[in-house]
Amino acid sequence: MSIFITFEGIDGCGKSTQIELLKKNLDEHGYQVVLTREPGGTVISEKIRELILSVENTGMSTKCELLLYLAARAQHVDQKIIPELLKNKIVLSDRFEEATYAYQGFGRGVSLDILLFINMYATSRVTPDLTFILDIPIEESELRWKKSGKVRDRLEMNNKNFFKRVRKGYQDRAAMNPDRIVLLDGTLDIGVLEKQIIDKSIEVIRDKQFIY
Q1: C-alpha dist (Å) from residue 173 to 2, 161, 180
Q2: Domains delineated in the chain
Q3: Whether 135 contacts 171, CB under 8 Å
Q4: DSSP H stretches of helix in 124-186
Q5: pLDDT tens for residues 25-78?
Q6: What CA–CA distance (Å, rounded) separates 141 from 5?
Q7: Largest Cα–Cα distance in the chain?
């Protein structure tokens, strides 16, 4: 039994915290769990990540950005995600295909039809069994970033209107795929969110075990 779960949301939404908490819980229940991220997850994909996010590359075109993201994903899927799923493991990824639809589709204005086509090619049609989107207002995202003291990368340097479009994109994607995507209120207490995520994940895992 293998399962693929992804976490999405705008910067500062708390997805990285929640994915770690879910891994810890699943580990404690005896599941074999692999934690990964996008862009990244493999040596080659991490090098592409550096290119994409470097503030030195502010002149990067939208097409170049998109194709770099998809190149990183193709390597990630072929070298890590598919092999781990074939070993009957649970793969948790911090971002995956919904980030492309939200950021490059709604954010940058790339046709969703184009994104669908090239994403299917890059992923070999591998699709998450379950996706969590942690939704927070743009103002909350800004506040959390200021508190973190982190330096913004190239993508995070986009303006507020860009991230409003990205957030709307995530919301729309959740509405279009209610059977797979769970939209959660990212402003809730960490413990409350953790329980919601664990309960839904265990439900999907057990359903898939029953099917198998």
Answers
A1: 24, 18, 10
A2: 3-211 (3.40.50.300)
A3: yes
A4: 138-148, 160-176
A5: 999 999 999 999 999 999 999 999 999 999 999 999 999 999 999 999 999 999
A6: 23
A7: 50
